[in-house]
Amino acid sequence: MERKLTCIVCPLGCQLTVQLNGREVEKVEGNTCPRGAEYAKNECTNPQRTVTSTVRCENGGLVSVKTDRPIPKEKMSECMQLINKAVAKLPVAIGDVILSDVFGSNVVATQNKT
Ligand code: SF4
User: Fold this and answer.
1) Is the CB of 36 under 6 A from ligand 1?
2) Statement to judge: residues 42 and 58 lie in one domain
3) Are residue 42 and residue 64 in the same domain, yes or no?
């Protein structure tokens, strides 16, 4: 089976063609550098994403957050449910952990709020 991907590792956006045998990556073409091959392999076998969102604050406002590392793509919906239920205690500083141990990542603040 063949799969077409756009590499998102750098702004060049190389068009990748991946030859798959089941879930196994046999060949990657179109990558300008080794990072593209690595991206294609991960995307086809264990796709991951960084989640960005907002968490409600105890005063009714919102604070922007993100996972501090990518989580499995298949867990994004569950991650968003946890984020939607969370309430941040003020004050919040950039980097503060709002939710810990969410599918191997922490959800951290990306802005200051008082
Ligand atoms: S293959 Fe390399 S050069 Fe091409 S988009 Fe990916 S990281 Fe950038």
Assistant:
1) yes
2) no
3) no
CB-ligand 1 contact for 9 (6 Å cutoff)? yes
C-alpha 42 to ligand 1 mean position (Å): 14
The answer to whether the beta carbons of residues 19 and 27 sit under 8 Å apart is: yes
- Which residue range is the domain that position 10 belongs to? 2-46
In a domain, residue 60? The reply is yes
Q: Specify the 3-state DSSP secondary structure of 100.
A: strand
Q: What is the pLDDT along the chain (114 residues), one digit of tens a residue?
A: 999 999 999 999 999 999 999 889 999 999 999 999 999 999 999 999 999 999 999 999 999 999 999 999 999 999 999 999 999 999 999 999 999 999 999 999 999 999
Pair 66, 37 in one domain: no
Quick one: which atom of ligand 1 is closest to the CA of 9? Answer: 7
What's this model's pTM, rounded to 2 decimal places? Answer: 0.79
> Considering only CA atoms, which residue is closest to atom 3 of ligand 1?
32
